[in-house]
Write a structure and sequence with these properties.
- By secondary structure, the protein is of the alpha/beta class.
- It contains 10 helices and 12 strands.
- The strands form 3 sheets. The chain has an 8-stranded parallel β-barrel with strand order 1-2-3-4-7-8-9-12, surrounded by 4 helices.
- Strand 7, helix 6 and strand 8 form a beta-alpha-beta unit.
- The longest helix is centred in the middle third of the chain and has 18 residues.
- The two termini are about 15 Å apart.
Amino acid sequence: MVTLEGISGCGVGLRREFLRSLQNSDFRPDWYEIVPENWISMPFEFRDYFEKVIEGIPLVAHGLSLSIGSVDPLNLNFLSEVKTFFELFNIKHYSEHLSFSAFSGGQTYELLPVPMTVAMANFIADKLKKAADFLGMPVIMENATYYHVPYAEMPESEFINLVLEKSGMPMLLDVNNVYVNSVNHGFDPKLFIKNLSLDRVAYLHVAGHSWFEQEEIYVDTHGKPVIDEVWELLKFTLNLVRAPVLLERDNNIPPLGEIEKEYALLKGITNTYYEP
């Protein structure tokens, strides 16, 4: 199993909406995950709050704009900004999505699926090694949701394993993403997880999702509480791999108290499997 220095137990995605509430709260998760793109150019009014909130709490960065599956070359200007931000706040761990979001120099701000082929696995692995060398740390790869099934020479789990093997990078296993994809595309989520290279898993994600009735699909909105089926899939996963777990909430941000309750539920589940 891959271990992350200084990261154990359960984390919460830190959002700007929480900063003021956290000033007067005793809530302290084991660690925070932050989206670097949302904080690199933070307004001065947030900077003081941010520094107080993260004091003494480890951080993991979870990016959205690396676009590792894009045919475009790596954006070294962006990576330079990210590296400077990591050095400023002593961030030692960085995760991103196995997808693409940019082409022809423009950002779509969507996580789009890549062809699941040997050639693409080699291409992505090469870019990952270059990005990791530039940053001085591994780039942890997350399995992404997708709503269009891309061209594939192999099952998704095999493609993920191939990218991890060829790049040498760790994995962020998003349990909610597995569940959403399994319902939308009709596969067994437990078998999917069992087929992954679980020895490469560095940490886990859980989150909520939404049902879009007109399209008849689940969408990974991170805008609702985690449902029972995802909690059960997390328990199944923790029977196979012991890793830190992150609770995500990116949309329809509730009061901090609701996040605390959901975090307590997460802690109760993980404490059954290991001591944080």
